Amino acid sequence: MATSATQKASAEEIDGEERLPVGAILLFGALVFAVLRQGAYHQWQHQVFAVLVGLAAAALLGSRQTLNALRSAALIIAPIAASTTISMALSTDRSDAGSTVLEVAMVGVGVAVGLAIPRSTVDVAINAVLVIALIVAATAIWGVATQTTPWGRVTEGVWRGSSSLTYANAAASVCGPLALLTFARSALTDSRSHAVATVGLTIGFASTQSRGGALALAAAGLGVVAYLGIRRSCVSGLPIVAGVALGAPLLLLRAPTDAAPQTALVIGAIAVGLAVTASAWPYRDRVPKPTVVLAAIVAGTVVLGLVTGAADPLTERLTLRSGTTSQGADADVLFGDRAKEWSTAWGEFTERPIVGHGPGVVDLRWQEDGRSFRALFVHNEYLEFAVTHGLLGITALVASATLAIRNIRPTADTWPLLFAVIGFLLHSTVDFLWHLPALPVLFAVIVGIALSRTDLIGSAT
Q1: Domain chopping of the chain, boundaries
Q2: Crossing angle (nearest 10°) for helices 192-208 and 263-280
Q3: How does DSSP classify residue 370?
Q4: How far is CA 94 from CA 63, 89, 346, 456, in A?
């Protein structure tokens, strides 16, 4: 009887390990809600998202494995939680303290959910993350193709893909890094579906016309190429680049506000691009001199973009300064004068360098040409964290990162996930991204999966 009971318990444990934890299902549902609701940025959205994430955390208490994941995540996030508490206690600006504490806790839950993903369901979890990213890409593309708000927004005379997040740079911070993940996995697993997803995510990224996102994607992308090797990168990249080259230019040509939308034509071109990638993928190894062919496609696309003007929406914005401000003697910098924001923020940091000004909303002000300017975001999350939390907070960030990194084995299983996280962290140096709770929580899940040390490469799909 004892032996039978033990066998039954073991069978139930094994069966349970083959299922996606309830906490993970709840968190993915919460992320879908948040992504469809402006990243859970506004108060009621933030509160609903926090409740849903809280339910996911409660579900992790149901078994020993998931409870251990929650404990491990708490240890990783503890330095940041401690620095936030100290900053609140020693500062006078607590205007954003509640949402900051909630976001730190939700990031911890995201890491815990990633850690709790069983080996057999890792591919399911990664695909769930990709579905969320594809929602962002699809809504960003639709916003530009149809020229409708809020999925598309006008900046300096061009429509940019803002997606359901309603912020173009936020959409770029999801589409770009996740495109790196799908590209790396497609190359490592021969997955056609991930190759096609890379095309969709890349076109979605292109629709955002994000300067900072482009720099971050290029830097992290070099890491992907270095890891995969030039030949493998080119062989896998050929059908993907071909699909993007067919789908993206027409979308960008219709981005200027003086260009009438041609939705059917744009979506048709993107569909052709996706179909070409899917059809060519099984034959990519048969292309002679793939490096030369890929270089020719890229060069041809760049020349075409410059000649037709498809590249103008991006190239005309290659500056640290945006010309978009409100009018009048006192002007809010709506989309960021990065150089002035950074220098002003540095000045505020030096006023209280140890514990910062507190977890409040920054209020940057400066004078230029007889006008008073004001900005509420630094457009550099690390510098803004230094302003609000001081050196104590930066030290806490480093400590939490160290606790995570020391447990990661950078292998073929984990590198695709790490490249996505690196892309997001790099993009965070030039935009405000952590303020949309859905974004740090989404990438916290990816960190957790990387920390789980499971074999992340499943069968080709």
Answers
A1: 19-319+382-451
A2: 150
A3: T
A4: 37, 9, 20, 41
Q: Decide which of 276 and 362 is more confident.
A: 276
40: alpha, beta or left? (left if phi > 0; alpha if psi -120 to 50): left
The contacts of residue 179 (CB under 8 Å, 6+ apart) are: 198, 201, 202, 205, 217
Residues written for the chain: 461
Pure H helices in 18-161: 22-36, 43-59, 64-90, 97-116, 122-146
Across the chain, mean pLDDT equals 87
The model's pLDDT over 428-448, given as tens digits with 9 standing for 90+, comes to 999 999 999 999 999 999 999
Q: Assign residue 229 a region: left if phi > 0, alpha if psi is -120 to 50, beta otherwise?
A: left
Residue pLDDT, tens place only, 371-409? 778 888 899 999 999 999 999 999 999 999 999 988 787
Cβ–Cβ < 8 Å for 273, 199: yes
Pairwise CA distance, residues 430 & 433, whole Å: 9
More confident residue, 11 or 103: 103
Check pLDDT > 50 for residue 10: no
In degrees and rounded to multiples of 5, residue 330 shows phi and psi of: -110, 115
| Tokens 């989404």 found at | 442
- Exposed / middle / buried, residue 324 (Cβ in 10 Å: 0-12, 13-18, 19+): middle
Report whether 164 contacts 35 (CB < 8 A).
yes
Grouping H, G, I as helix, E, B as strand and the rest as coil, residue 310 is coil
Contact 88, 358 (CB under 8 A): yes
Residue-wise pLDDT tens digits, 106-123: 999 999 999 999 888 999
Q: What type of residue sits at position 451?
A: L
Please tell me the pTM assigned to this model: 0.90
